[in-house]
Specification:
This protein is mainly α. The chain has one domain: dinb family like domain (Four Helix Bundle (Hemerythrin (Met), subunit A)), CATH 1.20.120.450. The protein has a two-stranded antiparallel sheet with strand order 1-2. Strand 1 and strand 2 form a beta hairpin.
Length: 188
């Protein structure tokens, strides 16, 4: 696997590990409670992340297929791509963002169902990227609703940074909920 793709997948995996470690202490009661007006529960955050990642997996898969049929050449650079979306990370840290309706969670799924959905969406996203291994993924760009034009590496960075942002929200939610609901606290 090419260096840039390896770097991206490792970054995405590290973000997922941090997310799962944050969610691990949540029980079914904590996971379903909304902390404040307008804030999402742990379950809603996880559902949103799964929806987003499933969508990005489709974008990357279609874009890789397009690249293969439209003469996109091989990857020629091995410089790091990790800082290419820092502007999003900085902006996301400083302002409240509102999810578009298309990625707003609806319905009630269990914690286990949502964790399985996240595992499935990650498998699909990794497969889409692996299908593009060796192609110049910087040359393939697609429009993001909020961020504008992103190359395929930046779409993966977005997924990881988006998870890290929601991990912090989940941390705050769990803290807020457990402070208000002592009987909801996980048994240690």
């Amino acid at each position: 696997m090419r260096q840039r793709l390896t770097e991206l997948l490792e970054y995405m995996d590290a973000a997922r590990e941090r997310l799962l470690a944050t969610v691990a202490p949540a029980n079914a009661t904590i996971a379903g409670i909304q902390p404040r007006d307008g804030q999402w529960s742990v379950l809603q955050n996880l559902a949103h992340l799964a929806i987003v990642e499933q969508g990005v997996a489709r974008v990357v898969a279609r874009s890789v297929e397009w690249a293969k049929t439209h003469g996109i050449g091989p990857e020629e650079s091995d410089t790091s791509i990790l800082s290419t979306l820092d502007a999003y990370s900085m902006e996301a840290a400083t302002r409240k963002m509102v999810a578009p309706a298309i990625v707003t969670p609806s319905g009630e799924a269990t914690l286990d169902e949502l964790l399985a959905s996240l595992a499935s969406s990650r498998t699909a996203l990794r497969a889409a990227y692996e299908a593009g291994d060796g192609l110049d993924l910087c040359a393939v760009k697609r429009q993001h609703l909020s961020l504008g034009e992103l190359n395929l590496y930046q779409w993966g960075l977005f997924v990881a940074q988006h998870e890290l942002r929601h991990r912090k929200q989940i941390e705050r939610t769990m803290k807020d909920v457990t402070e208000r609901c002592v009987e909801c606290a996980p048994i240690v």
